[in-house]
Structure formats: structure tokens, C-alpha cells
Amino acid sequence: MSAQRYDVVIVGGGIMGASTAFHLRTVHGKSVALLERGFVGAGASGVNFGNVRRQGRFLPQIPLSHRSREIWGRLPELLGEDCEFLPTGGLRVAYSDADMAVLEKHVGEARDWDLHLDLLGLNAIRSRWPWLGPDVVGALMSPADGHANPRLVAPAFGRAARRAGAVIHEHCEVADIAREPTGFRVTTRTGLEVRGEVLLNSAGFWGGAIAASFGEPVPIVARGPQMAVTEPLPYFMEPVLGGVSSDIYLRQVKRGNVVYGGGLRGPVETDPPRGRPVPDLSIAQWGRVLRFVPVLAGAQVIRTWTGVEGYMDDDIPVMGESGTTPGLFHAFGFCGHGFQLGPGVGAVMAELMATGRTVTPIEPFHIRRFAHLKPARPA
Amino acid sequence: MVDPRIVIVGAGPAGTRAAETVVRHGLRPVVLDEAPQSGGQIYRRQPPGFSRDAKVLYGFEAGRAGRLHAAFDALAGKVEHHPGTLVWTVRDGAVHTAPADGGAVGRFPYDALVLATGACDRVIPFPGWTTAGVYTLGAAQVALKYQACAIGGRVVFLGTGPLLYLVAYQYAKAGAEVAAVLDTTGFAAKAMALPKLLAVLPALAKGLYYLGWLRSRGIAIHEGVVPVRVDGADAVEGVVFRSASGEERRIACDAVGFGYGLQSETQLADLAGCRFAYEPQSRQWLPEADADGRSDVAGVYLAGDGRRVRGADFAEMAGELAALAALGDRGIAVDQARMAALRRGLDRGLRWGQALQAVFPVPHHFLADLPSETVLCRCEGVTVGDARRAADDLDAREINRAKALSRIGMGRCQGRYCGLSAATILADTAGEKPETAMRIRGQAPVKPVPLRTEEAAS
Questions:
Q1: Which of A308, B29, B335, B345 is deepest in the core (most CB within 10 A)?
Q2: pLDDT of A272
Q3: How far apart are CA B318 and CA B31, in angstroms?
Q4: Would the CB atoms of A300 and B450 count as touching at under 8 Å?
């Protein structure tokens, strides 16, 4: 039996894979099959905080982040739904002079990267957000940043990709990827076989194992973000909040719930993936939440969760073509900051695989930066 | 050797007997209970300062209630009892608590954990069920039993199960006007279940007593009804139902108590990592355990209605048996003959529970006919139509997927009240069997916990 052949086979249906499938179909007209072990977007892409944030990033990532932000603004037109994206502005607060110095430095450097940031002092903060805690001494506003509902975004890209003709297989865990004279043959645990000229590894934490199987191991670990949400409260917290040393980030959704996370990332079960937050880490967040926004004292926490995120040892992702295997591409290991990038990563990876180049610079993320690591076993 | 640390969650019939059994073997268990006093739901005690007679509060069950309360009271000083304490999660061999009074959170490591978490009302939504003045049957009973309050001055009771006639009887006896009892099980269905009814003879006798009592006082009883809606914009003004003969009728009232029996409270067993299996009659996924109550997670034991709804008498047996198993597994000598007798008793309990379910079937089929604008998940305001669209348009046929995409079961009750109905709606919409929709995964905290600054007690 000959397996169905596609221009591109995508392994991993998170926001990276789903967005890439969408762009491959709608922009480049390539045939695409996407294989996902669970539901599209139910892993790290669905359980993260939902920050659509550009400020505070590794600066060479800003062009990619800008490209992604442009797509965020067009979700209704592209996907038929806004995925609860709200460009409310993002506020990064300082608790100390040392924190302020970090923000000031970022303002200076970010000018070269076309980030328009407003540094705000105590008076501005007190008059605009009187509910911020007394320890806040200043803040940096990124007015066009915001937040969105992570549970909705990757599934929406997946459905839109399917409507555009991509073939999406859910509950199809990949068992084997074999190199063939032209392209790749991918076999799943359900017995499905597909062939692709080109293969995209967008398997999140598990992307590390795929890369290693092609002779390019990377230093990646799985960690679980500790997330929680309160009962619905009257809407008051417009900007999405983070801090330099606050160790907590918060956002309020339009129906009133306050979502927060931060602090130590917990250990997490990866096989099978099971997201159970660590109670002591959840409890440790409460004081930090109340220092940041004291009016939340007594608000009821109704749910906590976590998921499996892949962290590289240098805290930046792996993106681009393989260093060992022609036709293989990577987009994984987004170190807990991939959600905002997701739509743009899809556009860039689709462009790179379809045309061989991309207008958005992604060299700093190339897997060759780990070439000094010895392969666990030869490819 | 250090004594094993035994933690019991719940101080109802199962938790009380488990604690008593552990104490009898010379150990001092920790008993964590949400309520301010022991007794659980069915034998809930009245607040301090109330002095109604046990016969008034518990009726036929006054003797049992009194014995259970006395058994727990006799453990004073021999158990570490934390009343008013929510267990909000279980992880890595410890339970985590949050006291109702807002004090510091706590952590209790265990060698053996007995979960005696009980049951809550089974709800099937219908138009208007979220109107102010609509209560579950259990809540209507708690209002009366605990606070000596009626839910209204003129009340309609609706649904099925042993509680329906009991609560109506208790209300009428307490002086409330019972406008009608609307029984969703038809007379014919009950007659067909007669052989099974005979298996539950004491329940049948009590049911017949309540029924006769209500009839003799001229209270209208309608069998085989289908609820249509609750009327009233700001508060209940009436109930509209379809009678067994198919005509629509309306009864004016200012409160409604409704429910379709009980469902197990399984969230802690889920967080503890227990394996679950599907039970088709109730359509509930239940944590698995052996005859003694051992779950598949080492050190975690399940007892009482939280494992499977069999009622208070069998919960007492299950609590004792689970405690004996926990003790025996830790090398403490236990009475094997007693364990064998308890197993036989619980086996009868299983048949009893199944018979009750057959006699008082949950009317799952009501869900298929609900208008799409009916509220399904009241915490998040998700309608029946939203759930059907999740299955149809978003391809969300599994309930956790539907939860992620439509918010069903995402609110403060964590899907306790809508989850089972939502699963049936998803499966019906997809044309699949109800178990294919699976069950809502438990997430900590099992009930809301307030944000506060106190550090965890070590």
C-alpha cells in the first residue's frame, strides 16, 4: 500500500504547526498533512497564559514578533473569529530602581527595533491604574500588545487550514519517521502512513527527540507553567500585566475572570503528557498576586492548570532548516514565549519551506548553534 | 515502627465509621470535613442553638442519625478533627486544605487516604431552572433540616428518586404548602420495576408511606411528567409541565425543588490519579476500587457514595471496610471475618443501588428535546445550543475539548452540575454513545479557594 504523498508533512499540531499548515495552504497552495498526538492546540499552545507581548523579548526576535502581531490583528479576516484577542496594551511594572533601570535600558535598545514603548512614572501609574499595589514605582507600556484566549487560537488555525484543504489527523501519535530517497515516510501508532517531500518538526518539547533522531540533539527540558484563574470579577484590569521582578503576570478577560501565572515552573509528566500543577507552587503565587494587585484579596481561585512546554538552555527557540537533513525543518522549543509568535512562525516557516527563503530574519534560532553537542546516536 | 498516618476526607456515614475503625485499632486518624460538624449531608446536624427533636429532623432515620453522631462524638480527643475544612487537591502523597474561615492553608501527608466524599444532586437542566427560587431537592432539604427554612411558601417538587417524596413530605409536615409533586417516572414504569422494588423493600415501604401521607392531605401528585419550563422573570411564578397524557399544565408556586437522584463526588479521586470506569445506568464515570475499596493508586481507598451511590447504610459499611483494608495493608491485624461480612453486605448494597436506579431512572432523554437557548452550564452561561454547536461546528465531541472551546463546565462548580448532561448532549449531537464524550477531568481546586496571603502551615 502506498502512503498518501504531500508536499509537506507537519508533525505536531500546536499553534506553530497549525499556523504553518494554514499558511502553506492559503498563501503557497502546498498540499499539507498535519499529524497531532492529541487534539490540535491542546498542549502548550492551549494552556499558556495568552500573552500577545512584544516588549521585553530577545531583541533579534522582534521582526518575527512584529510580523506575528500584524497577523493577530487580522484574525477575524483570516480565520473568521478573533479568538478573544484584545489589543489592550501590555504593562511591565517595576518594583525598584533596579527594575526601572532594566526598563529604561530596554526602551533605549528597543528604539532600533521599532518598538514604541512609553515609560511611565509613579504619577502616571497612580492616576491611570490606581489599583496597582503600593510597591509599583514605574512601568513600561507597550500600547499595541495585548492578550488572547490560548484555548481557541491553534484550533481555529487548524479548522481554517482544514477548510483550505489541509489534511489534519488528530489522535495520531507519530511512531516513526523514515528518510526516503525523496522526502520522508511518517508512520503513526494508529497505523497511518503518510509521505512528504518536506517535513516540519513542530512537536514542542518532543521536537527535541525528533531532532536528535536526525543526528542533531539539542538541550531541551520539559517544564510546566503554573496557571490559575479567578471567578469572574467586575472588569477593571485593562492592560495585560507583567513585571521585571514581580514573578507573576496577570490579565483579565472580558467576562471578568483574572488569569495569572508565573513563578517557578513545575516539573511535568510528559509520557503521557499530564498537566497537574504543583500545589505548593500554586500557593506561593497568591502573595505575589496580592502584592501586584491588592484588590484581588479574597477573590476565589476556581481552577489551576499546567502543560508541557519545551525550554532550551539558552531560552530561545529552534527555527529553520535542519543542519543535517535536507527537507527537514524545525520550529519547536519556544521556551514559554511562543504564543505571540505562533501566527508569525507559521507564516515564516511556510514561506521558508515553500520558497527556500524568508524575508523575516530567523538566523539566531538556527539549530546549528547546538552543533557542538554529540549526537546520541548517528542519523 | 512509626504509626501509619491515616487521613480521612469526609465525616458523613462512611467517614465516621472509617475514623471509628481506625481509632479502635489504636491509631489517631486525621479527619478533614467541609461541614462545621460531623454527620455528612443526610445526617447533617443543626447549627448550635437549634433544638429541634431528632425525630423532626431525620424522621424514620432518627435512630441511625443519633447513633452515627454519638459514634463520632465518642472519638473526641482520639482523632485529629478539622471541621470547616475544604480539601482542595491531592498530590504526591499529601492532601491540601483550605479552611472555610479564611485561615492558613494546610498540607497533610498520608500513608493511607480514605476518600469518603459523598454525593451531590443530579441535575438535568430545563428552561428556567436558573430562575431565583429553583433549588435542588438536596438543597431544599438542607434548608429545612439545617436552617429550619423553607425554600418558598408554596413549593412544587419535581424529578425522581427517593428524595422526591421524602422532601415533599418533610416540607408539608413542617407547614409549607406543597403545591404539587411532579414525578418524571410514570406509574407504568414503576409497575414494571416492581420485582426490583421488592428488592428495596424498606425504601418501597417508606416511599409508599410518604406517598399515602401526601395523598391523604390532598396534595396533587402527577406521575410520568416532562418538565417544560419555570415561569417568572426575576423569581419563580409557576411551573409548566407536560402530563403523562400529553397536555401542558401550569401550577402557580414561588419555589421549585428538583433533582434526579444523586451522583458521586469523584473529583478528589480523580486528582489522586484513580482509574475511572463508565457506569451506564447513571452515565457517570466512577473511580474503580476492589471490593474493599482499594483504588488502583497505592494508599488511596474509596468509600461511600463518593465511590458509588448506595445510600447511607451501605456507606457506613464501606467506610468501616475501607479502613480495615487500609489498616490490614499496613500490617495491622484486622478481623477477617468482619471484613467478609462487610463485603457481603456491600454486595447487597450494589444490588440495592442498581435497583433504585432502575426504579427511578434518570430521564437522560429529556436532554435531546431541550430548546437550544436553555442554560446548560450556569457558571459560564453556556447554553444547550452552544454545546450542540461545539459538537457540530467545532468538532468537539469529547467533553474536555468542548470545555476548552465553549467554556462548558469551566466555572466554579467545575462541571459538577452540567458535566453529565453536557456529555449526553455532545454524544447525542454526534450520534454517538454517551460514554464517547468521556468525563470532565478534575482540576484543582475542587471547590473555589480565596486568594490570601497566609503561608501554608507546614
A1: B29
A2: 78
A3: 16
A4: yes
Q: What is the per-residue pLDDT across A220-231, written as a single tens digit (0 to 9) for each?
A: 999 999 999 999
Strands B106-109 and B94-99: antiparallel
Within 8 A of B105 by CB-CB distance, chain A residues are: 283
* Residue B354 is assigned to a structural domain of this protein: no
Regarding whether B267 and B320 lie in a shared domain, the answer is: yes
CB count within 10 Å of CB B51 equals 6
Whose cell is 500490617? That residue is: B331
The DSSP H or E segment spanning B157 is strand B154-160
Among A15, A36, A39, the strongest candidate for a mutation testing the B interface, having the largest count of B CBs within 10 A, is: A39
Q: In what order do the strands lie in the sheet with B6-9?
A: B80-82, B30-32, B6-9, B112-115, B300-302
* Sign of the four-CA dihedral A222, A225, A226, A229: negative
Q: Which of B91, B394, B411 sits opposite A279 (nearest CB)?
A: B91
Ranges of H-type helices in B59-128:
62-73
CB contact under 8 A, B453 and A286: yes
Domain endpoint, select from B334, B352, B385: B334
Residue percentage of chain B with pLDDT more than 70: 98
CB-facing half-sphere around the CA of A124: CA atoms within 13 A? 10
Q: Which residue has the cell 498535519?
A: A34
- CA end-to-end distance (rounded Å), chain A: 26
Name the residue facing B451 among A155, A298, A305 (closest C-beta): A298
Closest CA to A145 of A117, A166, A165: A117
Q: How far is B451 from chain A (nearest CA, A)?
A: 5
Tell me which residue in B405, B448, B455 faces A155 most closely, judged by beta carbons: B405
Burial B186-199 (b: 16+ CB within 10 A, else e): eeebbeebeebbeb
CB-closest option in A39, A159, A304 to B444: A304
The yes-or-no verdict on residue B456 having pLDDT over 50 is: no
Pure H helices in B298-335: 312-329
Residues, chain A? 379
Cβ of B443 within 8 Å of Cβ of A304? The answer is yes
User: Above 90 in pLDDT, residue B406?
Assistant: yes
d(CA B225, CA A63): 65
Do B206 and B287 belong to one domain?
no
B31-58 residue pLDDT tens: 999 999 999 999 999 998 888 888 888 8
The answer to whether B254 and B238 have CB atoms below 8 angstroms apart is no
A39 close contact with B: CB closer than 8 A: yes
DSSP state of A374: P
Cα A217 to Cα B422: distance, rounded to the nearest angstrom: 45
Note whether B164 and B112 are same-domain residues. Answer: no
Q: Is residue B365 part of a domain?
A: no
The domain total for chain B is 3
Predicted ipTM of the assembly: 0.94
Across chain A, what does the average pLDDT equal? 95
C-alpha cell at A301: 481561585
- All 3 cell numbers of residue A158? 487548524
User: B149 and B45, same structural domain?
Assistant: no
Question: Per the structure block, which three cell numbers stand in for B145?
Answer: 433540616
Chain A contact set for B102 (CB, 8 A): 298
Q: Give the C-alpha separation, A71 to A55, whole Å.
A: 17
Backbone angles phi, psi at B136, to 5 degrees: -75, 160
Residues of B in contact with A230 (CB under 8 A): 451
Report CB contact under 8 Å: B448, A301.
yes
Closest partner residue to A39 among B401, B455, B456, by Cβ? B401
Q: Give per-10-residue mean pLDDT for chain A (379 aa).
A: 88 98 98 98 95 95 97 98 97 98 95 92 96 97 97 98 98 96 96 98 98 97 95 97 96 97 85 84 94 96 95 97 98 97 98 98 97 69
Nearest-by-CA chain A residue for B102: A298
**What CA–CA distance (Å, rounded) separates B378 from B408?**
9
d(CA A106, CA A117): 9
